[in-house]
Amino acid sequence: MRPVSFDIDVLRSFVYGVQSGSFALAADKLARSTSAISAQMKKLEAQVGEPLLRKAGRGLALTEAGEQMFAYAQRLVSLNDEAVFAVSQASLQGWVSLGLQEDLSGFLPSVLGQFARAHPKVRVQARIARNAELLSRLDSGALDVAVVWGEGDGRPGERIADLPMRWIGSQAQPVMWTAGAAAPLPLIMFDSPCPFYAAATRCLEATGQTWQVSFTSSSLQGLSAATQAGLGYTVRTRLGLPAGNRLVDEQAAGLPPLPSIALTLCYRQARHSAVVMRLASIVSEAIQAQLS
User: Fold this and answer.
1) 59 forms bridges with which residues in the sheet?
2) Where is the HTH lysR-type domain (predicted)?
3) Do residues 23 and 17 lie in contact, with contact meaning Cβ atoms separated by under 8 Å?
4) 3-state secondary structure 125-191
5) Integer Cα distance of 199 and 201 in angstroms
6) How far apart are CA 8 and CA 23, in angstroms?
7) Which domains does the chain have, with CATH numbers?
């Protein structure tokens, strides 16, 4: 039997289509016609020997084979791009300092490893910190680029995504609070300033719901542990949701709806080096892949 060799261009169209939720958007991004993308998907399904997509309402969803293929396609496209950049930008060198949110610590270190392998002449210094500290370090010049919550307060940057804030509770332990009761809602939060703290308390006060901070910590790990123990509710996004925590059905729990928050790549200055641009691109792509 002749071995099957997947076409990277076809896999890239597949990955972009799934990530964006629309193969028409993928066609625009790749500067191809929708009919060309459709032909690529038919070719890929023929190679796999299984349907990869199924109708779901007005859109498309992945089949079981599609889920498997999508995971492999992401890896193959990523490895292809890593090889291309390693060869074509072998001369890329310098120093770059990156600031990250703790919510990203579960998957971004492996992305930094990929970057280091592709660009051995580049030295990367990464720091995980809270939003206010990251913004302060950008202003002082200690960081070249940082992933921050919010729009960066006028700093140079580019939005990665808009994510709905969510109430988060324990998977196993109920919170000892009932909507409509006299007792205040127990909150698990970072100290102010924190965009999630500010948004949650604004929404609670707008509905007349009393609240109190029952647990605070300087680390997201501490907040997650307290949430898992059922000491109260916290507020984050679905990105990097820790084990033992769950997204709460706000209507069922009697909690007010929360707004969305931007996740933004902010730069120290408007003009940045090729090293900073390349690392920022890899980080943005990794986050978008995690959200797809």
Assistant:
1) 56
2) 6-63
3) yes
4) EEEECCHHHHHHHHHHCCCCEEEEECCCCCCCEEEEEEEECEEEEECCCCCCCCCCCCCCEEEEECC
5) 6
6) 16
7) 8-88 (1.10.10.10), 94-162+262-291 (3.40.190.10), 166-258 (3.40.190.10)
DSSP string, 213-261: EEEE-SSHHHHHHHHHTTS-BEEE-STTPPTTEEE--HHHHT-----EE
Distance (Å, whole) CA 180 – CA 142: 47
Structure-token match 């193969």, residue found = 23
Q: At residue 220, does pLDDT exceed 70?
A: yes
| pTM of the predicted structure, to 2 decimals | 0.68
Beta-carbon count within 10 A of 190 CB: 23
> Can you read off the two tokens belonging to residue 19?
């990530």
Reading the block at residue 185, the tokens are: 């809602």
Q: How does pLDDT run across 105-116, given as a tens digit for each residue?
A: 888 888 888 888
